From TrEMBL:
Entry keyword DNA-binding: no
Pfam (any one): BPD_transp_2
GO MF terms held by the record: transmembrane transporter activity
Protein task: Part of the ABC transporter complex LsrABCD involved in autoinducer 2 (AI-2) import. Probably responsible for the translocation of the substrate across the membrane.
Membrane topology qualifier: Multi-pass membrane protein
Protein name: Autoinducer 2 import system permease protein LsrD
Organism encoding this protein: Paraburkholderia solisilvae
One term under GO cellular component: plasma membrane
Taxonomy, superkingdom: Bacteria
SUBUNIT field: The complex is composed of two ATP-binding proteins (LsrA), two transmembrane proteins (LsrC and LsrD) and a solute-binding protein (LsrB).
Regions that span the bilayer: 21-38, 100-121, 128-146, 166-189, 220-239, 251-268, 275-291, 303-320
Length: 338
């Protein structure tokens, strides 16, 4: 009996649209929905709000993409943001100059990520369990530092950066940081040996180790990057709202993970792209803004985020099962004909 034509099977496998293409379609539909819901949606001022509200989520989603590609997860990102904001307020209240405050806060983020990474890598513990613990630890630290108080007397030049736009455009100045970081992280993941190693680790860490990849060092690096970027998000958030509080960024981890998974990154690791995550961030930002303009409650927005998170896990798995079933039927029909 002749074997089925592998070329035919390959062509059938290539027919579905790429996930990124589907995300572009969803983004266009989301923009159309926003325009229908509110006449001010496509104005420069509102688009500036969309990008500004995405800033901190995007900064944390970039390293989260690397972590999930490597089949790990970091649930402590929003708590590191909150602790960084609280620390920023305490240091400024102590009288330190703002440049020194920013450097020390970023150093705190690096140390927070290092703590996560060392516990996970050196003790070989699951990242889910470890970062649930540090989620509570860093949020508790934020409240210890500031309690229920707020620090809001930051210098005007820095708070102006948090609220101004780039020249005459609608792009917020903090979002420029996102653009620069997005380019750097995209190149890191898609065009370097480090990125290729992440995909190999996510697909099969044992095989990656046998091929000479320094699995432990690379995993540790991703958590350090996550801590540093979360601290940067805390700095930006504090300057945008001119307020350092212990509860800043509470609940942001759900939006970060939803953006990464909805962007096509597999929760099991080894698959995904930074372009998909960036498109996903824009979709989530557009939908949230459009629904907010339509007076939808914050509770409903949380439901939408949760639904996107659930869909991002279910849809790829359902599509994979459908493709496997389709291929089996195709092979069976081809074998019967020959």
């Amino acid at each position: 009996m002749a074997k089925p034509d592998s070329a035919l099977l390959t062509r059938k496998r290539q027919t579905p649209l790429r996930w990124e293409t589907l995300l572009v379609i969803v983004l266009v539909l989301s923009l159309g929905l926003g325009r229908v819901l509110s006449p001010v949606f496509l104005t420069g001022a509102n688009l500036s709000n969309v990008l500004a509200d995405l800033t901190e989520i995007a900064l944390m989603a970039l390293p989260m993409t690397l972590i999930i590609v490597a089949a790990e997860i970091d649930l402590s990102v929003a708590s590191v943001l909150g602790a960084s904001s609280a620390l920023m307020g305490v240091l400024w209240h102590m009288g330190l100059p703002m440049p020194a405050v920013i450097v020390l806060v970023l150093l705190f983020g690096v140390l927070a990520g290092l703590l996560n990474g060392l516990v996970i890598v050196r003790l070989n513990l699951p990242s889910l369990a470890v970062t649930i613990g540090t989620l509570a630890l860093f949020r508790g630290l934020a409240y210890v530092l500031l309690g229920d108080q707020a620090v809001a007397d930051f210098p005007p030049p820095y708070t102006a950066f948090g609220m101004d736009t780039l020249g005459a455009s609608f792009i917020p100045l903090p979002f420029v940081i996102v653009i620069v970081c997005a380019v750097l992280f995209t190149v890191l993941l898609q065009a370097t040996a480090f990125g290729r190693s992440l995909y190999a680790i996510g697909a099969n860490p044992t095989a990656a180790a046998f091929s000479g990849i320094e699995v432990a060092r690379i995993r540790l690096t991703t958590f350090v990057l996550s801590g540093a970027m979360s601290a940067l998000a805390g700095i930006v958030y504090t300057l945008r709202f001119t307020s350092a509080r212990g509860d800043n960024g509470e609940g942001f981890e759900l939006s970060v993970i939803a953006a990464v998974l909805f962007g096509g990154v597999s929760i099991f690791g080894g698959r995904g792209s930074m372009i998909g995550v960036l498109l996903s961030l824009l979709i989530i930002g557009v939908l949230k803004n459009a629904l907010t303009l339509d007076d939808v409650s914050s509770e409903t927005l949380t439901i939408v985020t949760g639904a996107l998170l659930l869909a991002s896990v279910l849809i790829p798995n359902l599509v994979a099962r459908w493709r496997a079933m389709r291929d089996r039927r195709f092979l069976a029909k081809t074998a019967a004909k020959t």
